[in-house]
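Box 3.1 A note on notation
Throughout this textbook, protein chains are presented in two layers. The first layer is the amino acid sequence; the second is a token string describing backbone geometry. Keep the layers aligned when reading.
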Amino acid sequence: MRACNEKSQQSLRVQGRRSQRHCQFQSLQNIACYIFLLTQVLGVVSDYMEPTYPEPVFLPRLLDVTVREGGRAVLPCAVHFLGTKQVTWRRMGDTHFLSVGGFLWVKDPNLNIQYNEITPEVTEWNLEIKKVKPEHSGVYECKISDVVPLIRNVTLNVTGPPIVEPVSRPPIIVSGKNYVERGQSIHLYCNATSQEGIDLSIRWFKDGDRIDPASYKHVVITNYNLVEQGILVSELFIDRSQSSDTGTYICRSSADYIDSIKVTVLFADTTNVKRGDPSEGPDNQRLESSTTRPQCLVSALVLGLMLSLSLS
């Protein structure tokens, strides 16, 4: 009886161990299943969360640009959904790029890339050419780097005659002689450049005092316009200059531009001493006159004595 009980207890222990192992195996299987399912879910989520970009496309822009020689040409290139790709410019027939992205690949100060982000999805990569020359004419290629590159060709036409840049002139300038002899005439000229919408006029001043006909009767001022050049010229004339005419003459236009010139009237002494031997100077002349007076007195006394002897 005791042996049977021991056998039954031993069999129960074995069965318990087997069931425990089975449960442990089942738990490991469940964990493996859970891990597999989790990896599958994470893979799906990662695939779902991975950003996808639409294919880039060119937006409608001018394909033919005409510019006068010496002007500025802008070749447009606008892209929608560029993403991480690059835009390059190249002139057809050349083996090198002009630009990659926003960087120039040639050393030309007249070339520039005008980048403009219109929206986060729309960007412009315009090629700017300054001081256009006839040799700049041709077809330019705007390309998007991709497995299958996208290309947009823009034609540049350069026509003549060239644009002449206007010559810049100072708004006002005074000219004339700085030194004149007394009695000579004084001629001063003031050139003022006119501006659109402003009626030009010129006023003269001497040492800060306005020159008017009442106070400066000997000064003649004449104004005349150079219509073709848009310049007002004022002439100040003094016939016979005096020492009092020395001073700073200021010209001011109605546009508040100012220029000045300093004039000096030179006074020359007319009582010049004869140049030559220093012994002929005034001091020597006084010495000679002082030594000749006693000699003349002695001669007069001798002559008077001889006359009295002859009469006697």
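Helices lie at 2-49, 282-311. The chain has a mean pLDDT of 79.
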